[in-house]
Amino acid sequence: MLEASRWRRLALAIGQLSRPRSLAFGLLAAQPLWLAAASATEADSPEATTNSASATPANPYLYLDWFPKSQLDPVERHSLAPVCGGAFIEPQRLYPNSDLLPEEAPLRATADSSNWLEDGTAQLRGNVHITQGYRQLFADQVDVNREESTAYLSGAIEMREPSLLVRGKAAEVHTDSKAASIEDATYVVHEEFVHGSARFASREASGELILTEGNYTRCEPDDVFWRMSGGEIAIDNVERQGTARNVRLEIADIPVFYFPYLRFPVGDDRMSGLLFPSISNSDENGWDIAIPYYWNIAPQLDATIVPRYIQYRGTGLELETRHLSPSFSTEARLAGLPNDKGGDDEDAQRLINEGFPEELVLPAKGEDRWYLNLDQAGGNGGLWRTRIDYSKVSDPDYFRDLDNAELKVPQNVSARALTNLNQTAEASLTSEHWRASIRAQEYQQLVKDRFDTYSQLPRFNLDGNYKWGDWQLLMDHEVTSFDHDDTQTIRFIADVDDPTSETTSTRNFVNANRTRVDYSFGWDKQWLWGFFNPEITGIYLGYELADTFLADPAMDTPETSAGQITIDSGLFFERNDTLFDYEYVQTLEPRLFLMASSEADQTDFLNVSTSNADGGNDLLYDTSLFTFSYDQLFRDSRFNGNDRIDDADRAAFGLTTRFVDPRSGRDIFSASAGQIFYSEASRIELREFLEDVPRSEFAARLESRPTDSLRISSEVIYHDTDHTINRGNFTLRYLDDDFRLFNVGYRYLRKEEIYDTTDSYLVQGPVRQADVSAAWPINDRLSILARANYDFTFDRELEYLAGLEYDTCCYRTRVLWRRELDNDLADVVPPEELEFDEGIYIELQLKGLAGLGGSVTRILSQGIANFEQREVLKQ
């Protein structure tokens, strides 16, 4: 690091020559260390005296302490990033007191000759080497003038401190102010991979390094792809930032940007300043240009302000701010686009020309559009905690039309794929045995032909947990108020072939207060050979319903209760064996889950309103069935939510076998299968009672991890009565230490085939989709990026990606071609008529400076599984 104190210490090292103190002048010259290193390399080479042609290739950048990867020792080579071709390595300091601070060590000097003049000037000539602690100075000659308080250095000047090297042709040091100026300077900051040169380099009394007609880069010296050069560059490593005036950014020796003033970080610290713009082009939006400004307000507070111009929509502004305190971590995001011009969507214009209402095809045209997100986590690590996760947009099409240029979307998925936005605020108090929480939650619906869901305003929970050895008592209490507008009306287009098919749908909603209490007492006993967990549970569920829209106002307090006994048990058998001299451990793990329940009469929860189409018709406010899988065999409830009591008596049996590597503990292969058997043919589902279904589907799961890099999994849900596969998937994930990434996936979901009214095209059918993606290196720097996501049901591609990545220590660039299904009109146009969008995206990251086109990284992270993990491994 170019710390100001280091330059001050270098000046002091020279300045000390003018003070009356003991100096040791030796006639044994000390060579500059880079020459000594070169001599050592030649001397140590076994072929140096026998075969000069096979000696280590010459290193033209040795004077910068630069060593190619081939010349590094194994430890240094292993710690080097694969994309880097070498490293800046400091030579060892092999002289007395080299491990001391300069102020704690005596000043020592050696030279070929020395002379004191009558006027008090000290002259050192020939291979001058001055040390004071870890500070060093090399020069051909040094003249110290005590009266003028200056020291003049000439010849091959070399100044060193830990992680710092400065060279020059001549230098002048003012020993009073500790300022120094160096002519024809080159510098290296080893730890930060920074180097450059300047016509003049001066160290001001404030400690700031100023480069006149200089340059700054973090590239390798033999491959300087980018540099900042020009008028004046100031580097302040106390503040860990740099400023540049009248400089240009050169990429591949071509000036691409001129900056009258620019601030940039030195190292990885944050600092205020303009970031590189984000530029893209699409058919619907035209040119989309965003110019972010980062404002480092305080160590615990910053903001990113992003003016944004969209050719076919208008000009807007985005803002992201982050704050960190001992009790709260807060992130807030806001974006606005006034008076949206509507974009240039040919498909939408075609529908409008055919007579469809413009306010349904382009409902946001002419409107002010905005996005708000607040994400806050609070707590003292013990008694209290808070959490706010609130997101809201002006209209359901916001993300599909705009997609924020620089701000993060609320979820780690494609913004265009969002179907709702979460709006939650929660606070809790926790003691040793109790936890009390209060929460307000609602969702903003982003699908235009769906009704809003119920809000929880509020939800109160009081949960207790007591343990005595293997015995445990759980007490869960919940009271929730479900709120919705009594009546909601939505408008949408029912038939895209009929301009007059505008449809209005209205639904009434039954609001309610729900109370649920669950008490359970059980024994959680485990042994090396198995486990046995019996539990007895009492459940109460009741509602207070608003009388509006009730079929029978007298039935406004339906309730039910049940007592349950569950037993979850399993055994572990294992044996050691070998296959082709490979040792492994095989296990056999049978598992039995039993549940018996008293009858919970829930018929009063069904058909409570005046219309079957009413939203509260079956009192389902936050409840759905779990997606059936092998893991669901052993749950005490089939429902995700608290609107139903699962009172179906049943026995679930599962069997798992594993082949385990005894050295790593890794499951080389495992297989599981199981099924649920019901004691009665009738059981409650979400909206009805099922009859004559004595058992569940058959669930099977296979998993394999033959190596640390490869994971394979598959799951099949088989209906043994109809002899059909209801759901299945296969996944292969590969990511190794060489950053080779490969994914294969296939999923199937049986659904009824539904055609349009004329039986011309398929509207809905079974889900049959394949996904193949890869990020595969050709060499240490060049990689292929690809993805193919295909829908076999509609015989069309969902998304294709193809691109190249070139990554070095200095920069990274990605070029990506993308073809994807355009979902902007998914609510209006049938699947058969959806069009495709194509585009070419370019991303350039100048490491240590800025990046251009960050949307490419977002596309790859959302499209290629484990891509973010690959990015972390490469750091």
State mean pLDDT (0 to 100 scale). Answer: 83
**Terminal-residue CA separation:** 20 Å
Beta strand count: 54
State the helical fraction. Answer: under 10%
Individual helix count:
8
What percent of residues are in strands? over 45%
Largest β sheet strand count, sense and barrel closure: 31 strands, antiparallel
Low-pLDDT regions: 1-54
Q: Nearest-angstrom radius of gyration?
A: 36 Å
Overall spatial form: globular
SS content category:
mainly beta
Helix and strand arrangement:
Elements: H1 4-15, E1 25-26, H2 33-44, E2 66-68, H3 74-79, E3 86-88, E4 107-110, E5 113-116, E6 122-132, E7 135-145, E8 150-161, E9 164-174, E10 180-189, E11 194-203, E12 209-216, E13 226-236, E14 241-251, E15 254-265, E16 273-274, E17 278-282, E18 286-290, E19 293-298, E20 301-310, E21 314-324, E22 328-337, H4 346-353, H5 358-361, E23 369-379, E24 384-393, H6 398-401, E25 420-430, E26 434-445, E27 455-468, E28 471-483, E29 487-493, E30 502-508, E31 512-523, E32 525-527, E33 530-545, E34 559-571, E35 573-579, E36 582-597, E37 624-625, E38 639-640, E39 650-660, E40 667-678, E41 683-684, E42 689-690, E43 698-704, E44 710-719, E45 724-735, E46 741-749, E47 754-755, E48 762-764, E49 767-777, E50 782-791, E51 796-807, E52 811-821, E53 836-846, E54 850-852, H7 855-863, H8 867-874
Parallel strand pairs: 1-4
Antiparallel strand pairs: 2-3, 4-6, 5-6, 6-7, 7-8, 8-9, 9-10, 10-11, 11-12, 12-13, 13-14, 14-15, 16-19, 17-18, 18-20, 19-20, 20-21, 21-22, 22-23, 23-24, 24-25, 25-26, 26-27, 27-28, 28-31, 29-30, 31-33, 32-33, 33-34, 34-36, 35-36, 36-39, 37-38, 39-40, 40-43, 41-42, 43-44, 44-45, 45-46, 46-49, ...
